[in-house]
Specification:
This protein is mainly α and 349 residues long. It is built from 15 helices and no strands. The protein has helices at residues 24-33, 40-50, 58-69, 86-106, 117-129, 136-142, 146-160, 165-168, 176-189, 199-209, 225-238, 244-256, 259-271, 276-307, 312-338.
């Protein structure tokens, strides 16, 4: 790529601005984060009892997103010491239990292979190679309007502006071959020691090229529950040692379904006249993730199962959950665009 691409300023991930509440649970969490006393536990239990389903619940997903964000870049104006506040952790645990239960009930599980690296890799390639639904990447490549491309970037922004962080929680929880494989993948995600090449920084450049704000969390109020559920699933898996198999499976599926879609995403942006600077993020993933998928399938997921066979079911669950939650995000976006409306909760500024 041109040298000027490496001279762009690298955005600093500042704390996420506090969003507007979407119901009593997120309102109670926001109040607790700002030091206001209240019956947080009771509100969370009542919210869970009243919810028709946490996966699509705007209030519950936002509440969990806020509680997780304390473990990442933090929240604007919120005391960092609240990261380990017992009342907030208790509320997070109840929401997490509901999310995990919903995922385990809804995610279709593949057949278990033998606990060998080759068999696990083959099972993951088979799982991720199935194409039985509408394709967001093909729509972006051939049909998406400029405004829909901007919405697509906004939908991806909250994860991609901190890309790789949820999966990095697994590094100290793995050992030997699996740990080395994960570090190899993550080193590329973080730019190989060059901050301008961090994938989060490259994505920020794409947002700027599309006339969007690249500040972390700038569009959190516009993100629907399905998008937040995808983010929260990553955090759920990454923050719990007992789910280390699931976060490894999630990353494997994430990498194994990246290369071809990113080629199509790049084509969609070029169709609207964006230059190689704007498409660098997508072009980078076409090549990088073609390598990463092999490492993730064999040396990461396969090696983990060989070392800890009891984690096989969770590796498969994590991979299947990745496809499930991300598939729901794509379906929500395509459904909205097919009906001629925005996929966001409100119009872009």
């Amino acid at each position: 790529m041109p040298a000027t691409m490496l001279e762009d300023a690298v955005p600093v991930q500042r704390p996420m601005p506090l969003p507007e509440a979407r119901g009593p649970v997120s309102d109670a969490v926001l109040r607790a984060l700002q030091g206001a006393p209240g019956p947080l536990a009771e509100v969370v239990r009542d919210g869970l009892a009243a919810s028709p389903g946490i996966l699509d619940d705007e209030d519950l997903q936002l509440a969990l997103l806020l509680l997780y964000e304390q473990h990442y870049g933090g929240l604007a104006g919120v005391d960092d010491r609240l990261e380990w506040d017992l009342a907030l952790l208790s509320a997070r645990a109840e929401l997490e239990a509901a999310l995990e239960a919903a995922l385990r009930a809804a995610v279709p599980m593949p057949e278990r292979p033998e606990p060998t690296a080759a068999a696990v890799a083959a099972a993951l390639f088979d799982l991720t190679g199935r194409d039985d639904g509408p394709s967001l990447s093909r729509y972006v490549a051939k049909k998406a309007t400029l405004e829909q491309l901007r919405e697509f970037l906004v939908q991806r922004s909250l994860y991609t502006l901190k890309e790789a962080d949820p999966h990095s929680w697994a590094i100290p929880r793995l050992s030997a071959t699996a740990k080395a494989a994960l570090v190899e993948i993550q080193a590329d995600e973080y730019g190989g020691g060059r901050p301008q090449r961090m994938h989060s920084a490259i994505f920020a450049g794409t947002m700027r090229a599309a006339g969007l704000d690249d500040a972390y969390g700038a569009y959190v109020d516009l993100l629907p529950a399905t998008t937040m559920a995808s983010l929260n699933t990553m955090s759920l898996f990454g923050l719990h040692r007992r789910l280390r198999g699931a976060i490894v499976g999630h990353l494997a599926a994430f990498e194994m379904t990246s290369s071809v879609p990113n080629r199509l995403y790049g084509a969609g942006f070029r169709r609207h006249g964006f230059d190689e600077h704007a498409t660098w993020y997508f072009d980078e993933h076409v090549e990088a993730d073609a390598v990463h998928e092999q490492i993730a399938a064999h040396d990461l997921a396969g090696a983990l199962v060989v070392a800890e066979p009891a984690l096989l079911a969770d590796v498969l669950f994590g991979a299947a959950a990745c496809l499930f939650v991300d598939g729901r995000v794509g379906e929500q976006m395509l459904a909205a665009w097919g009906e001629g409306r925005s996929s966001l909760r409100g119009p872009l500024p």
